[in-house]
Design goal:
Radius of gyration: 19 Å
Largest sheet: 6 strands, parallel
Helix content: 40-55%
Distance between the termini: 30 Å
Shape: globular
CATH superfamily: Aldolase class I
CATH architecture: Alpha-Beta Barrel
Bound molecules: S-adenosylmethionine
CATH topology: TIM Barrel
Number of domains: 1
Low-confidence stretches: none
Strand order of the largest sheet: 2-3-4-5-6-8
Strand content: 5-15%
Number of helices: 14
CATH class: Alpha Beta
């Protein structure tokens, strides 16, 4: 099995069968080896720096009904909110003071924020924060909409493919939401010129090792600038409330493998990873990740952006989150930096 890891490190590619074999055959010893090799590559390209992105969760209204997600439209118990344009700008102002040079606007697919409103918000941020990257994470849109946002000043887009396999995708989403449509969005975003981030949940219901192998092959083919993966965590108001969460162990293993496959990719240690284990994000960095995404949303709405249960950092002020993460990174020998943190994977 070690030969497969060496092969991946040296050639950055494996066949589907090899991926399955490696994922199935993982052991603590092999994981330790993956992490060690992943760290070497990460240090080669990104040193001991950790990039931060300020996450602004600006709406939890959503027209979609993804079975795993706490803000799905049929969750009538979700307390819905929207931030005003002014509130969004205030988040950016505070973030800028705290050293953030990337703002991530994330939200449900909320029709209230139509293309005109989004373009206006993007233009306002672009005008006020010329040296910052603007990242959008607002779901599936038309080519035209994506282009409009890009022209308004957005640079990056996060859209997890969730799972590559169409059958598996169909078990996680209602009819009408299709894996192929989501994947097409990613190709569109790339073509327009965005730095693109995609990714998947680890341990989502019905996921097999074969599905994960297909996810890896898709990542290789798309060659995105960022890859966000995190464990699936059940939300009590969804159909998957009783499903087990994805494991930290497999999430870390996959992070390490992604670093070996896409050496220069930006790889966040996600909030979900920090939720299933208090040291999850530190371990993510030590497995090859190089980005953290503290929350800049106002504390008054934090707990309402509830995608899964027990989400961390819902009570902390932005400054506290930033400080806490800087200390956590320092404790393992890494340094949070004030930088746009563009991907070297171009
Ligand atoms: N609406 C946008 C979209 O579709 O990309 C952005 C918001 S969406 C809630 C952000 C991500 O949250 C999804 O891509 C999904 O992977 C993750 N997510 C949702 N529910 C989750 C859960 N129960 N456990 C872990 N991650 C979850």
């Amino acid at each position: 099995m070690k030969e497969l890891i060496d092969r991946l490190r040296d050639r950055q590619t494996l066949t589907k069968e090899q991926w399955i074999q490696l994922i199935r055959g993982r052991t603590p010893e092999l994981s330790a080896y993956v992490f060690e090799e992943a760290r070497k590559i990460r240090h080669l390209h990104y040193g001991h720096e950790v990039y931060v992105r300020g996450l602004i969760e600006f709406t939890n209204y959503c027209k979609n009904d993804c079975y795993y997600c706490g803000i799905r439209k049929s969750n009538t118990r979700a307390k819905r909110y929207r931030l005003s344009r002014q509130e969004i700008i205030e988040c950016c102002e505070m973030g800028y003071e705290l050293g953030f040079r990337t703002f991530v606007l994330q939200g449900g697919e909320d029709g209230f924020f139509d293309d005109d409103k989004m373009a206006e918000i993007i233009q306002t941020i672009r005008a006020g924060f010329a040296d910052c990257a603007i990242t959008l994470s607002i779901g599936e849109k038309s080519y035209e909409s994506y282009r409009r946002f890009y022209e308004a000043g957005a640079n990056r887009y996060l859209l997890r493919h969730e799972t590559y396999n169409a059958d598996h995708y169909g078990k996680l989403h209602p009819p009408g939401l299709l894996a192929a449509d989501r994947q097409q969005c990613l190709w569109d975003l790339k073509e327009i010129g965005y730095q693109v981030g995609t990714g998947f949940m680890v341990g989502s219901p019905y996921q097999t090792e074969e599905n994960l192998a297909e996810d890896m092959l898709f990542l290789k083919k798309l060659n995105p600038q960022m890859v966000g993966i995190g464990p699936f965590i059940p939300h009590h108001d969804t159909a998957f409330a009783k499903e087990p969460a994805g494991s930290k162990e497999l999430t870390l293993f996959m992070l390490g493998l992604i670093r070996l496959m896409l050496p220069k990719v930006l790889l966040p240690a996600t909030t979900a990873l920090g939720t299933i284990d208090t040291k999850g994000r530190e371990e993510g960095i030590l497995a090859g990740a190089n980005v953290v995404m503290p929350n800049l949303s106002p504390t008054s709405v934090r707990k309402d952006y509830s995608l899964y249960d027990n989400k961390i950092c819902t009570g902390d002020e932005a400054a506290e989150c930033r400080m806490c993460l800087a200390n956590r990174m320092k404790s393992i020998g890494y340094e949070v930096v004030t930088d746009r943190g563009d991907s070297l994977n171009v």
